[in-house]
Request: fold
Amino acid sequence: MMVFLRSKLLRELTKEERRRHHQEIGGFVLGKYREEDIVVLDRLVECTNVSDLPFVKYCPEEACTEKACKLVFRKDRGNIAITLFHTHPRDTFFSVEDVESLINLSKYLGIECIPAFLSTYNSEGHFLSYSLGHYTLISRFFEIESRPLEDRLKKHFSKLGSLADRIEYTVMQR
Ligand SMILES: [Zn+2]
Reply:
């Protein structure tokens, strides 16, 4: 699958205030399928974190989740792409729960979700996309790098099965 990210969306996902925020923040990233295997992501729906432990966990407000899901259920359903986004201020990798929530969203909507995005607290402002066996680092300077998961992490996620095949990302300049 090929995923195109609009540069405006990437700037939005990696912006300074977001990276400096000490609580986890996030929401949904939306876009459209241009062809069966080509997605353009261009929209962010931010949701308030209602977790009891907002410093270590992200849980979107229910009304906001409904709003994002409604967009998917609208008339052009099947054409809409959706995924999750949140930050880890302590610069840690995806948790098993993070991946599980993506799988649950995908089951709930009855569509295939592309891997979630995670923005970590490192100075570079990288964000990560996870798929089984690989993860992709995308910097706010549009540098894209795919890396194999360490064995430790592979073991960690193995029970979740294959989330998606390796995805190729491209940042669209406009
Ligand atoms: Zn998380």
User: Anything to note?
Assistant: The first strand starts at residue 2 and ends at 6. Helices lie at 7-13, 16-20, 62-73, 96-109, 151-157. The chain has five helices and nine strands.
